[in-house]
Amino acid sequence: MKRAEKILKRINELSEITEEPGVITRTYGTPAFVEGRLLIVQWMEEAGLQTSIDHIGNVRGKIISEDSDEKTFVIGSHIDTVVDAGKFDGPLGVIMGIDLAEHIISSKLKLPFDLEIVAFCDEEGVRFQTTFLGSKALAGSFETVILNETDKDDVTLRQAIQGIGGDPQKINAKSIDAKNWLGYFEIHIEQGPVLYEKNIPVGLVTAIAGQCRVEIVLEGFAGHAGTVPMQMRKDALACAAEFILAVEEFAEEHKDKLVATVGKLDVPHSASNVIPGKAICTLDVRSADENFLESALQSIKKVTIDICSKRKIDLQWNNILQTKPVPCDQQLNHLLQQSITAAGYDAIELVSGAGHDAIAISDVSPVSMMFVRCFKGISHNPLENVETKDIAAAIAVADNFLNLFISNYNKSKWKYQH
Questions:
Q1: What's the CATH code, domain 210-323?
Q2: Structure pTM?
Q3: CB neighbour class for 1 (10 Å; exposed up to 12, middle 13-18, buried from 19)
């Protein structure tokens, strides 16, 4: 329990580093992000890790094996947050990773491969709307074309990277070569209610749902609220309302396969006595079934076109993000399942509806994830909470998992070829 208490204390300490007093906000490249990063460096060094910061801003702590063949197993999660966040989304996995590495070092356990703990710099993508910056850099898939993306203050991503000491032209240079990846393990709060409702501390992630995000611009015609007859209006907001209800209806019809959300709606130059001439909204669709995700998106687009045609509204459909569903590796999951049952818990299988750094890492490595129960499944919210006893349970499972992986590797049972 002492390890769990130490992890919780550090999570609370990191949560005090924020851009806004009274709330937790720590977005990429800000002074709060840099301060939080230095604290992670300090904890990694105290654990005995060889610590560095790469050009995108990831904090990386490494145990180099005496028998190393340059193969690396990575444990990671992120330290950036959404605006007005909870304490545990991301930092739980990072700080638990440091604890696991410290336990290995203090136990004088010899590793047959290198172990790297990574605190990814930008998973949420809040500041530049560019998710997985850190994990893409580690995987060698960072695309320099996004360096000119700007934040709300017109600061470019390029400038932000330079501002925290990175070199935008060398970001992929510090990646781990695909041939040297052994595997990736991420510990994360569930961000859903299943474990809480079942009263089980940990869960086995089988897949991460694919995501499609779209910006939808509806262009009508603004007019006087008192003088334009109802049948002659081109009301963009009314069109948006019909679209939103259509998305909800579609998602309800296919709730066993997907979720869909219109999470943002903006009406420029709105006024109580003006017919809205323009509405901008977002669409987020997620499914673990790649083929169904694509067909669902096309179905929703067709419905949107029909609604706009009926209402004589011009439509812009702008694809913002599209990620494929990511299955977790069967070999790693077999070990993780054994580790959960050995710790005395049922191995509940879960699909993650949220995106994680494991998505970017899956391009070069087998990935695995363990969920930890959180209070009522609440996340991206100050009420986010994990109990000490559940952290202790997750430590027991993670220790089992690493020991099993080392044992299988030593016996040459690990045959994965990506």
A1: 3.30.70.360
A2: 0.86
A3: exposed
